[in-house]
From TrEMBL:
Protein name in UniProt: tRNA-2-methylthio-N(6)-dimethylallyladenosine synthase
Domain of life: Bacteria
Cellular-component GO terms for this entry: cytosol
Cell compartments where the protein resides: Cytoplasm
Gene coding for it: miaB
Example of a GO MF term: 4 iron, 4 sulfur cluster binding
């Protein structure tokens, strides 16, 4: 009897991507086998996002596309989890009655039990917990990458931004103890991982329950320094900090810890003090720019990226001009730009003076044009420089046609390079040094020979098809349930739904709320 297969479709931020690794670990522990091919999978799991306006349409469109297959294969199961499931709850099953399981952001570990219950009872199971019972990092994980790993340091958020639905879906901030975090980092490095990204909805608020701010030190800065002492860990990144909680000791720790990358993603959202106040963002434009100046003074070559919302209710042309001024002054290497859309359940959704769509689009286009001009200038400044890259996979859509490979520089820039000038095969996970020859708005090209090439354990693991695995670190009190054997297909009529959707984004969604 062959094991049932599962496929996970992930929408949204880095937190969701890491949650999907935990979902995969839980399912493999229960006896399922992962497949990259959604067609024919015995279980399809949707890990959803509720941030953007088209999130609902995207999910229900994809669910509709699966309905005919589900009708032909009664043994197939469909599960919906994540933020949209937490928000919509029973509405998911009302809109898509062929869904078997709906689970929330706080009960990832219960998915195998819910699937078994749905099979046994012959009806959909909906379980939405209101609070976190076990930190997700205690669950097993099937890691996506041999060379880079996500490490959650906190979940939830204590902020009350008027446009954001995340706190109501993820709950209040809960922090992990530093020893647990470092143990996970060390375990990943022991399996060959070269780079970790510390994750939190408000990552630099980490430790508010146990650090001593009166001493001038913060738990997050101490955590960065501790990561710097992990032997074999070559790069440390983090996302996303809140300007309100950004302290000088974090900047110092970044500058003084060699493996902490010279990269900072810090959401701006707006450059207008009036709009920031309406958003309940507890900083103003000057405070933001002061942080930018301090970061650049400590790390002149640091790359800064940000999130910006255009068209927040009541935004005037003068307000928008303030955003353009901050963008010009900050010189971001990239910006994740979003057109405001009201999200039900948020205070901003009922604010007066909603900005007309045409006005929002025109401002958005101007912002994107300005940012692309700045990004192009900064990437052209890289030409002639030597860049150290961890070779990646799946980042260059044209790599096959151009015979290039791709990698990320220490400051996070995407670099496409020609894998020539070395006698050994270059694999994802290996480390190379190249010289930049061309700059474009969203990437850098290095078309000369590779200057240096270092084969790594991560490269060995990738070539062998191996990925780091994280075992369960504490029991959840749930039974370990195995999946059923795949059921034969039968002929039955199906239904379809319009799954079309569009996103006006040029980059993947960041972790922060929009």
């Amino acid at each position: 009897m062959t094991a049932a297969t599962f496929h996970i479709r992930t929408h949204g931020c880095q937190m969701n991507v890491h949650d999907s690794e935990r979902l995969a670990g839980v399912l493999e522990e229960a006896g399922y086998e992962h497949t990259d091919d959604a067609d024919g999978a015995d279980l399809v799991v949707f890990n959803t996002c509720a941030v953007r306006e088209n999130a609902d349409n995207k999910l229900y469109g994809q669910l509709g596309n699966l309905a005919p297959e589900k009708a032909q294969r009664p043994g197939m199961q469909i599960a919906v989890g994540g933020c949209l499931a937490q928000k919509d709850r029973d509405a998911v099953v009302r809109k898509a009655p062929w869904v078997d399981v709906v689970f929330g952001t706080h009960n990832t570990g219960s998915l195998p039990a819910l699937l078994e219950r749905a099979r046994h009872n012959g009806e959909a199971q909906v379980e939405i917990l209101e609070a976190l019972e076990t930190f997700p990092s205690h669950l097993p994980a099937r890691r996506d990458s041999a060379y880079a790993g996500w490490v959650s340091i906190s979940v939830g958020c204590n902020n009350t931004c008027t446009f954001c639905i995340v706190p109501s879906l993820r709950g209040k901030e809960v922090d992990r103890r530093p020893g647990e975090i470092l143990a996970e980092v060390e375990a990943l490095v022991a399996e060959g991982v070269l780079e970790v990204t510390l994750l939190g909805q408000n990552v630099n608020a980490y430790g508010v329950s146990f650090d001593d701010r009166a001493s001038g030190r913060t738990a997050f800065a101490d955590l960065l320094r501790s990561c710097g002492r992990v032997e074999g860990l070559e790069r440390v990144r983090f996302t996303s900090p809140h300007p309100r909680d950004f302290t000088s000791d974090v900047i110092t720790a970044m500058a003084e810890t060699p493996n902490v990358c010279p990269q900072l993603h810090m959401p701006l959202q707006s450059g207008s003090d009036r709009v920031l106040k309406a958003m309940r963002r507890s900083y103003r434009a000057k405070r933001y720019l002061d942080i930018v100046d301090d970061v650049r003074a400590a790390m002149p070559d640091a790359a800064l990226t940000t999130d910006i919302i255009v068209g927040f209710p009541g935004e005037t042309e003068e307000d928008f001009a303030g955003t353009l001024r901050v963008v010009e002054a900050s010189r971001f290497s990239q910006a994740f730009t979003f057109q405001y859309s009201p999200r039900p359940g948020t205070p901003a959704a009922s604010l007066p003076d909603q900005v007309p769509k045409a006005v929002v689009q025109e401002r958005y286009d101007r912002l994107v044009a300005l940012q692309e001009e700045i990004s192009l200038e900064l990437n052209r400044e890289q030409v002639g420089r030597e860049l150290e890259l961890i070779v990646s996979t799946g980042e260059g859509r044209k790599d096959t046609a151009t015979r290039r490979m791709s990698g990320r520089a220490r400051d996070g820039r995407l670099v496409h390079f020609t894998p020539t000038g070395t006698t050994e095969e270059i694999r994802p996970g290996d480390v190379v040094t190249v010289r930049a020859t061309y700059g474009a708005p969203h990437h850098v090209v290095a078309d000369g020979d590779v200057l240096t090439h270092r084969r790594t354990r991560a490269g060995d693991a990738h070539a062998a098809g191996q990925r780091p695995t994280t075992p369960r670190t504490t029991g959840l009190g749930l039974p370990t349930l195995g999946p059923p054997a795949a059921a034969p297909a039968v002929s039955a009529p199906g239904c379809s739904a319009d799954g079309s959707s569009s996103a006006a984004l040029r980059l993947p969604a960041p972790l922060t709320e929009v």
